[in-house]
């Protein structure tokens, strides 16, 4: 359904460090990094799409966060949600909701919410039942 998602950033190096740590916890792999543009992308381990891209806005204007916008990443397990949330906070993110079940979405919804160093709201979620 999605080809790519592009999040505008203003300060490339801190954003790259943040997203590199987060993407590593989610099992994605780097696709490219070009600090001269600046932009970078990651992709799923098993396919070439969708891409997740960070970079300066093409119009040259400062990047800004949209009210009500959020990007949610699938995690392979609840433990991955926990570790991704911890990595996000360790790399300049701000907590918007600790990891945990949110049964008001559905019985197995296990998610965590946080903002990147630029203020973009993100979620990491596992929809699977806890494995014994």
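^ structure tokens above, recovered residues below v
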């Amino acid at each position: 359904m999605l080809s790519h998602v592009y999040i505008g950033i203003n300060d490339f190096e801190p954003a790259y460090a943040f997203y590199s740590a987060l993407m590593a916890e989610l099992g994605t792999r780097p696709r490219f990094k070009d600090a001269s543009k600046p932009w970078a992308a990651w992709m799923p381990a098993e396919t070439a799409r969708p891409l997740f891209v960070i970079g300066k806005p093409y119009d040259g204007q400062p990047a800004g966060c949209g009210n009500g916008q959020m990007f949610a990443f699938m995690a392979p397990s609840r433990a991955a949600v926990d570790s991704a949330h911890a990595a996000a906070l360790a790399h300049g993110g701000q907590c918007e909701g600790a990891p945990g079940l949110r049964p008001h979405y559905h019985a197995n919804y296990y998610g965590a919410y946080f903002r990147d160093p630029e203020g973009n709201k993100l979620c990491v979620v596992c929809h699977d039942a806890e494995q014994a």
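The chain has one domain: 4-55+69-126.
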